[in-house]
Amino acid sequence: MTLLSLQRSTVAKTLWNSRTRVFSSKSTGLSVDVEHFTAGWNNAGGDNAAANGKCSVQTFNKISPSGLSRFPESYYKVEAAESASGPANVLLLRSHKLQESEVDVTVRAIARCGAGTNNIPVARMTQLGIPVFNTPGANANAVKELILCGMLLGSRRIVDGVNHMKSLGEKGLARERVEKDKAMFGGREIHGKTLAVVGLGHIGSLTARDATALGMKVTGYDPGLSVMSALKLPRDMELKDSIASAVANADYISINIPYIKKSPQEGGTHGIIGKEVISHFKKDAVLLNFARGELVDSHAMKAFLDAGDGRYVCDFPDDELWNHPNAILLPHLGASTYEAEDEAASMAADTLRDYIEHGEIRNSVNFPTTALEERHDQVVRVTVVNENLPGVLAKITDVCAKAGMNIAQQINQSKGDIAYNVIDLNASNKPMDLKDFQRDMTMIEGVLSTRIIFGAPGVGFARNVNGQYVV
Ligand SMILES: NC(=O)c1ccc[n+]([C@@H]2O[C@H](COP(=O)([O-])OP(=O)(O)OC[C@H]3O[C@@H](n4cnc5c(N)ncnc54)[C@H](O)[C@@H]3O)[C@@H](O)[C@H]2O)c1
């Protein structure tokens, strides 16, 4: 059953539950009357989580406690989704494959602690007007450190040496043989060598910066280099205009680009490090792949390793190369550090709080980035999520005018099929009853949901579910 059909059936069973809350702010003296959203089909009349005005954050997977501690207890109730006491307002997850049926009608945002969001039905969430956030770059330092480690592993036969020590030790020969055998495991230094970095985003730019600090010359290639990443690059780094020219004289090559399941000719990156690119490698080049296994054509890589003294270091499985003497394949460990998990959870929590408490949007994969001016003390913020259709904006402004609301500032952003509006209303000294206003705003054709951001973050949310006002 889809979310909308679930919603319809739930509405029909009149399980929706709402109450009115009047919030006043001590600092401003404002008093604003809004609906308190408590509905949800998992709720079936119970409204424990929402009744106290707290925003219910529900988690799938184990989320780092340092991230969860970013939600102040006075305003947020954090609990595991599987044992939650009521409907969720916000979902936080890592690798859990989210089903549409797990997204309550009360949910207003979802965040993934990590970069990829293919475990979330993003397109469907967009149709429902729910922003999906991620945490790009939160694990960049962890991956960069493993790349630096990979560079050293690929330079000296450290792994072979450790394995040799173990086998000597098992035979009781470690002391006797180890000095004699060390010549088998010689290698080279990275200082003064050239590293080519393909993809200069969060991970690539840090790798380039730190390789320079280790005394390496760095070249790179990235046709979509962002300003933020460019600022992190070492000054004397040489930027090239193709992967082939970047890798041509490199002793080490680090690839840090996304995997897109199409051939490079079709705009994808599947097997992008194939025969042609590899033909430009030096015979003893070390390829570091801590991005995705499928970026490298294993047959072509095997031919390269068989022919010369090159190395392949990677943290993805490969049925063809796992046992090759010149390949070092690790488990997928790039982001597996305590710090990366803490950073991802903290970033996700901060991003969610900015959205819930201020209406700001950053790091969303389906909603437009919306940076907002600081709010004036005497305003009430209203946000509107709508389908990106002509004429909706005019109707939104019209509802404000008809309600006699004076707009202090307004922003309208769009991304694909979705548009997002933030309207700051000048508040009067009189108590403001915004219930009718919110209903009119929400029921505009094309509007999916509205929020009145005032007082406790768990309140003031309404949805237009196929023409039904759900609050
Ligand atoms: N090993 C791990 O555990 C691990 C962890 C995190 C990320 N990753 C992988 O690392 C990749 C990079 O992560 P990030 O956080 O730096 O991503 P990012 O989005 O910050 O950077 C990717 C960069 O690659 C560039 N790019 C895209 N296609 C390119 C191409 N054909 N040639 C050159 N540059 C190209 C983009 O312009 C962008 O600047 C991710 O896509 C992910 O697959 C692996």
TrEMBL record:
Q: What is this protein called?
A: phosphoglycerate dehydrogenase
InterPro entries per the UniProt record, alphabetical: ACT-like_dom_sf (IPR045865), ACT_dom (IPR002912), D-isomer_2_OHA_DH_cat_dom (IPR006139), D-isomer_DH_CS (IPR029753), D-isomer_DH_CS1 (IPR029752), D-isomer_DH_NAD-bd (IPR006140), NAD(P)-bd_dom_sf (IPR036291)
Keyword NAD tagged: yes
Which pathway is recorded for this entry? Amino-acid biosynthesis; L-serine biosynthesis; L-serine from 3-phospho-D-glycerate: step 1/3
User: What EC class does the entry list?
Assistant: oxidoreductase
> What UniProt keywords apply to this chain's record, in alphabetical order?
NAD, Oxidoreductase
Instruction: Report the domain of life of the source organism.
Output: Eukaryota
Residues forming the ACT domain are: 381-458
The UniProt entry, under SUPFAM superfamilies, shows: ACT-like (SSF55021), Formate/glycerate dehydrogenase catalytic domain-like (SSF52283), NAD(P)-binding Rossmann-fold domains (SSF51735)
Which family does the record claim for this protein? Belongs to the D-isomer specific 2-hydroxyacid dehydrogenase family.
Q: Which reaction does it catalyse?
A: (2R)-3-phosphoglycerate + NAD(+) = 3-phosphooxypyruvate + NADH + H(+)
